[in-house]
Automatic annotation (TrEMBL):
Pfam entry (one): Competence
Protein name, UniProt field: Competence protein ComEC
Segments passing through the bilayer: 63-81, 272-299, 319-348, 360-390, 410-428, 435-457, 493-513, 519-536
Gene3D superfamilies tied to this protein: Ribonuclease Z/Hydroxyacylglutathione hydrolase-like (3.60.15.10)
Keyword set, alphabetical order: Cell membrane, Membrane, Transmembrane, Transmembrane helix
Domain Metallo-beta-lactamase: 551-736
Subcellular location: Cell membrane
Keyword Transcription: no
Organism, scientific name: Arenicella xantha
Entries under CDD domains matching the protein: ComA-like_MBL-fold
Length: 799
């Protein structure tokens, strides 16, 4: 009987054999007359990567680009030093060509929020969320007279509420849709959803109008996505709902849509999220186990196949199994890279060539960039390639490649990348992965795939029993991960890394390649520098940030290491919270660990929605609100109450006993004053309260900057109130193409008539106001962090 220890020893020896097959060669030769293949690939990849720094894509005449590249191509025959420039240019223009083509196919602005009929096929696996289903549709035809031919053959993202029929992959539908251009929240620390949509080549997003009129036109022929859809239905039919089923779906089909936000956070905090994403580890395991299986099966028949190379008999079936598993995952980017690497490995073995793992990685990246340059925008691409590179450094000749030491090396090597993309680092990851990676690799993943095979060949009873047992095991593992993630020191939130952090990373890479004695010390210094990354507050400066939370309000004030939060943004019936998506990531981005003062202006959902998420994530020392019944452990925000935050003075102007009734009119109105500069925060007050305030005998409403009341509604911003405040700058917090029409054109005109500058989160994203030494400066996220995939939003009044 084969023991678990035997399987583990076999897997370990096979992994070491795989790593040592790639022995280093003279990989990077860059001298007169020679530009080696690895050097060319590196420069090509760098050329593609440089596009990430572009704020806008250049407008190019491709005939001119062809001539531009032809000249250095001809000169490179004689002048060797032009070849690196040519490699960089080829990568750059290759990426720009694809990105520009996608940008030109975007939905024109004038056809946003316009109803029209589309016919298309469902691609990918639809995601069901209660009564709402989200899916991607590849447009085949537009059944209207609108000039939208550039959308044909492109993908759009749709949601359908209470669709009368089940929407499945490979079906052909006719929908009446209302679309917008791709958009997302633009704020520091928040997930860049516009980048995600650009990477997945979506030209618009929207929803199905009149879902009862949606027509199913037919089902396409059998395809990979249809196969995945049928398998998912079978799995859901045989496994009880729960996290165990979610983990099986993730490992079998690469479908992580059934994980809740809490479950995703638990997996990330415990450091095992990579095990739930089908990548090189999983595809490599399938390749390794299949090759070993064929080696065992064919061993008794060695004499029969004496004329056929043994490696061909073993590797090509293993490669086919890896391709099938990747197809189950929908050929995600991580599986594409893994397949390319495996193909290079197989060819090298069959051609009796030896390449270093770094060289194989470079070839895989170059092929991936040629096939899909959009991959460079994918976070998973950088994570998977970074992990392989760390393994390549760790498996150099004479290096310690024990699995016990590989996990800490991976943790340290990946720490800068995870900190850059996620703003946090799992501190328990090395120990958790040291236990779970062998268990998943040797036992759970093979058994899960065997159960899938049983289900596919019709052995449903045995498959159902196996899947039920596996679901229970996964459930128990998740409960253990929940306990680990709940530990106080399970993770560390990391503010943005400074230049000196990246210099330290460069020194560590160099020391690791040279196997210098100082490498362990540099690694320890890097870990301490990232985990204990100090965020230096600026004394005597006031920072006010109006966050982009769509149609709602959330604002953060920082002064002398004290923090005030004014409103927490909306939360929707689907469970999506802008506090989770925008407010909390911004606070962690700034290295904030506690809230000194929380003000909930009033109880409307677009202002109070994220309260529970904030209270769960951060300690709050004191809270003010106009609705004590809605906010626990709070004090009333009464007119006349004042306090200070360092050099900043704060005072409530409303409400008081004479304030008109109504939810909006009971908003907490707050005046901030710092170094002689005044900022007025108005909540959702309407014209009744505005008149009440400027008519009070002791009223002093004058301010340099004001928050436009009620997102620019027609019910607010009376001429008399704007005159009384007399601001230089007015800030608007409103959602892109919101159905209220905020900010209203007549309201904006009142500010423009008085020569008041207006900035809106619609066009600017989050807005930063800095006040210091009797002076103030304003900037925005889109101004400071604009990239070519952030297609600038136009104001709602342009409709």
């Amino acid at each position: 009987m084969i023991s678990f220890q035997y399987l583990r020893r076999q897997a370990h020896s096979n992994m070491l054999l795989f790593a040592r097959q790639f022995r280093p060669t003279a990989s990077f030769r860059f001298k007169q007359g020679v530009l080696s293949a690895p050097c060319f690939l590196v420069l090509f990849f760098l050329g593609v990567s440089t596009t990430l720094a572009l704020r806008q894509l250049p407008l190019l005449d491709w005939r001119f680009v062809g001539v531009l590249l032809l000249v250095p191509l001809l000169l490179s025959v004689r002048f060797w030093f032009i070849r690196p420039l040519l490699s960089l240019s080829l990568g750059f223009f290759w990426a720009v060509m694809h990105f520009s083509d996608h940008g030109e196919a975007m939905l024109p602005r004038e056809y946003q929020n316009v109803d029209f009929v589309v016919i298309g096929e469902v691609v990918g696996l639809p995601q069901q969320r209660g009564a709402d289903i989200k899916f991607e549709l590849k447009i085949n035809r537009i059944a209207s007279s609108l000039p939208l031919s550039q959308l044909i053959g492109r993908k759009i993202q749709l949601s359908c509420y209470r669709c009368p029929k089940t929407i499945k992959a490979d079906q052909r539908w006719q929908f009446t849709v209302r679309l917008k251009r791709p958009y997302g929240y633009a704020s520091w620390g928040a997930f860049d959803y516009q980048k995600y949509q650009f990477r997945h080549q979506l030209v618009a997003r929207g929803y199905v109008r009149e879902s009862s009129e949606a027509q199913l036109l037919g089902t396409l022929g059998r395809s990979v996505n249809g196969w995945r859809e049928r398998l998912r239905e079978q799995l859901e039919a045989h496994i009880e709902p729960g996290v165990g089923r979610s983990m099986i779906l993730a490992l079998a089909l690469g479908d992580k849509s059934s994980f809740s936000a809490t479950q995703r956070q638990t997996l990330q905090t415990s450091g095992v999220a990579h095990l739930m994403a089908i990548s090189g580890l999983h595809v490599g395991l399938v390749f390794m186990f299949t090759s070993q299986l064929f080696a065992w099966v064919l061993w008794p028949f060695a004499r029969v196949f004496i004329r056929v190379p043994r490696q061909s008999l073993v590797m090509w079936p293993a490669m086919a199994a890896a391709i099938m598993y990747s197809a189950l995952a929908g050929f995600a980017v991580s599986t594409q890279r893994a397949l390319i690497m495996l193909l290079v490995y197989v060819l090298c073995r069959l051609l009796v060539r030896r390449l270093s793992l770094t060289q194989v990685l470079l070839r895989a990246i170059a092929v991936l960039m040629l096939l899909d340059p959009f991959s460079v925008l994918d976070t998973g691409f950088w994570l998977s390639c970074g992990a392989v590179w760390v393994i390549a450094i760790s498996t150099q000749p004479h290096a310690n490649v024990s699995l016990i030491w590989l996990q800490p090396k991976l943790w340290i090597g990946m720490m800068p990348i995870t900190s850059l993309f996620f703003g946090q680092v799992s501190l328990v990851s090395p120990m958790v992965n040291l236990v779970l990676v062998p268990v998943f690799c040797v036992v759970l993943i093979p058994l899960t795939l065997i159960a899938i095979c049983l289900l596919s060949i019709g052995a449903e009873s045995l498959a159902a029993w196996s899947l039920g047992v596996l679901a229970i095991v996964y459930q128990q593992i998740y409960q253990g991960l929940e306990w680990v993630a709940s530990l106080a020191l399970a993770r560390a939130f990391t503010p943005p890394l400074a230049i000196w952090h990246w210099l330290l990373v460069g020194l560590l890479i160099g020391a690791s390649y040279l196997r210098s004695w100082c490498a362990p010390w540099l690694a320890a210094a890097l870990v301490l520098a990232i985990i204990f990354n100090p965020s230096f507050g600026e004394s005597n400066k006031l920072r006010v940030v109006l966050l982009d939370v769509g149609q709602g309000l959330a604002l953060v004030v920082e002064s002398d290491d004290q923090v005030l939060v004014y409103d927490v943004g909306p939360k929707y019936s689907s469970g999506f919270s802008t506090a989770d998506a925008v407010l909390l990531p911004y606070l962690r981005y700034r290295g904030i660990t506690a809230i000194d003062t929380l003000i909930i202006s009033h109880a409307d959902m677009d202002h109070i929605g994220g309260l529970g998420d904030l209270l769960e994530a951060f300690p709050v020392h004191r809270t003010y609100t106009s609705r004590l019944d809605k906010v626990p452990a709070s004090q009333p925000c009464e007119a006349g109450h004042s306090w200070s935050m360092g050099a900043t003075q704060l005072r409530f102007l409303s409400p008081d006993a004479g304030t008109p009734v109504g939810s909006n009119n009971r908003s907490c109105v707050l005046m901030l004053e710092h170094a002689g500069v005044r900022v007025l925060l108005t909540g959702d007050i309407e014209k009744q309260v505005e008149r009440y305030l400027f008519r009070k005998p002791d009223s002093d409403l004058s301010a340099d900057i004001m928050l436009v009341p009620h997102q620019g509604s027609k019910t607010s911003s009376t001429r008399e109130f704007v005159d009384a405040v007399d601001p230089q700058l007015a800030l608007v917090a409103a959602g892109y193409l919101n159905h209220y029409g905020h900010p209203h054109a007549t309201v904006l005109e009142r500010y423009y008539e008085r020569q008041v500058s207006v900035m809106s989160t619609i066009e600017s994203g989050s807005i930063l106001l800095e006040i210091d030494n009797d002076d103030w400066r304003v900037s925005s996220y889109r101004q400071l962090a604009q990239r070519f995939w952030h297609y600038q939003k136009v104001s709602n009044r342009a409709r």
